[in-house]
Amino acid sequence: MKKESPMWHSVGVLAGVVILIVAFTRGWLMSALLLIAACAWGVWVLGTQLPLKSKRKLVNRPRAADTAPTPNEWQDAAATNTLLLLHVNQRITEMLHAAFPNVTWKWCIKNPLRLILKGGVGRIRVYGVEGFEYADIATETTGKVNCNMLRLVPLSAAQASELQDFSQTVIPPEQLNVGPDPKIWYEKSGRKTLEQVVNDLNSRGHHSLTIHDDGSIHISGEDPLDDAVPTASLADFPPSKKWSELVDLFTEDGLSATLNQNAIELNW
Questions:
Q1: How buried is residue 33: exposed, middle or buried, by Cβ count under 10 Å (0-12/13-18/19+)?
Q2: What are the pLDDT digits (tens) for 167-185?
Q3: pTM of the predicted model as reported, rounded to 2 decimal places
């Protein structure tokens, strides 16, 4: 049974008192008694019911101290942010070392962690790289990190012909080790695509495939025309001069890799 509210009970009592006064009194006495009854009821309401409502609001309202992070939570968040920054720093270092083995660098922005969390472009200062002084690091909220090298050129040399001569003589293309770093490429996209292809071929009785220098994957089938049609393709496949590193990565995943002149043969 639902419990009756004290407020409604008091209203019922007041109504009964008013009926008795009206029934048994007349004139100025009735007016005086009605005024006394109304005042008594009002004093009771102000003294008992309103403080209860205010107290309930205070009890139900969460305190700022209850919602604020505890010191342990602050420490955990700081440790996580530090770990995230170190992880991104390591990725940038690996990307730079793929082209410049002796490079070191530092951030030129005050809050690199904000750049990592929100995404955007931030600048770093690089050392030990001939012809380049800075690099722009572009981060995305999806986790992608890209690096664009920058060089300082005097205004007097900022003509198209002179810039072209500068790019050709200071840093030849063969010194840049063009192409993605094998480890970064394999972790980012290569392993996933290759696993899908190997699982599909293995389920159909195949035990080998060939990866050409353009990243196309071929298999030897019963139909000679099958060799001319790629089964799949590996995007941004590293150049042949980095294939020895790829062979080590394939071997770690349990694949037998053999280097040929223009292709890599995988067996499982």
A1: middle
A2: 444 444 444 445 677 888 8
A3: 0.40
